[in-house]
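Can anyone check this?
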Amino acid sequence: WNEAEEWFRKYAFLESDAKRRTEAKLKIAACRYEEGKFQEAARQAQDVLGRYSDIDEEANLLLGKALLAQGRSDDALKTWARVRSASSAGAEAAFRIGRFYEEQKEFALARAYYDSAKLRRADSDYGVLAVKRLSLLDAFASQETTSQDAAKRLFLLAEVHNLNLGDFDQALVLYQQVYDSFPGSPWAPKALFANAWLLKNIKQDSAGAVPILKRIIAEYPETEYADESRRWLGLPVPKRKVVKVTAPAETVAAKSDSIKAPEPLPESKTIEEAEAEESTARPESPREPRPGMFPKGRHRPPGARELIDEATGLPKVTLVPVAETVAAPPAEETTVTQPPRPQLEIVHFDTDSWRIRPADTAALNQNARLLLANPSLKIVLIGHCDPRGTAEYNLKLGQRRADAVRDYLVSAGIPGERIVTRSEGENRLISANPDEFWLDRRVEFQLE
């Protein structure tokens, strides 16, 4: 710092432009602050104030730090409060005030200033830090409530250390505690998988991740985390059809291996008569329902008695079997099953990043293979973000994510003219809870 100060001093002496000389003097003040010469740094910063408004912001930031280092906290807060612009300097000033109040355990004031830092410049270093501190405060606050179970609270705290603070070692410890303390909780396999992901992708310890993945498969074989563990280990993955429910409906509360063939409703006589026209003998024992037969307890679409093909005697209505659906709105009319289309996997991203993660390359490669096998298909890549940051910034970030996936697919051989990209930013959140933010940071594949 002594050498840097000397060079800035020489520069200020040689420079003819007054503003640049002022900037050099402020750099000298910063060097003195770093050397621990807080009083000298404060005087030097005060000397440059009042000359140029943009330099005043940097000078007030430095002056506030020097005053706080001298124990003059009230003066420091007043100095930082003068920096109010929607800039990186404004975000830093608000963050420093928020950090001061957090250390004083005045969390309401801390949150207010962290929010200000985020609003002033969410994509700046201190704007990002403010978002992280807000998430951590949320996590601590959730631990004091009784609305969440203990396993979820602990998992949430681990997620904050992992995704928000970047404290991966502490995250590993907390994820392991979730499994050790609550092995029967649905958060346990999720925590184990998070540990395996950190070991493989952050710690570069693939060998250490393997036993964890095997444990997930052995202890939680029916979960999505077991399926993903199988993919990582190159094992076959059982096919499970997942149907999203968009309206309240009665669900079938039975596992696929315990579902029995449904019996036809007694009132479906017209369909039975149609079947009788094909065959004069019908077995009396229960049998698998044919397409069009109405399973027990299922809604019969209006007008079903008239939906018989006169040429074949078969019903025109086809119902999805009970074992293949999760729920069905009671008033909806069943539609004819369409030919299957390729199922393209969603890709997820780290916080404030559009870099393709190594863990997602297998899914992208599989998507590319499916697209190469269906050359007539065109796709729309839709980028999404979690709710942190400004709406404008998140729209740009979502677009960068979609473009990054497009570039990957093009490099894999998919013609660029088959791909359209757009961003939804934070407009289509899956979850607004911090422990589910990873679901929001995604790119979806929409087939045209």
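Reply from J.R.: I decoded it. The radius of gyration is 31 Å.
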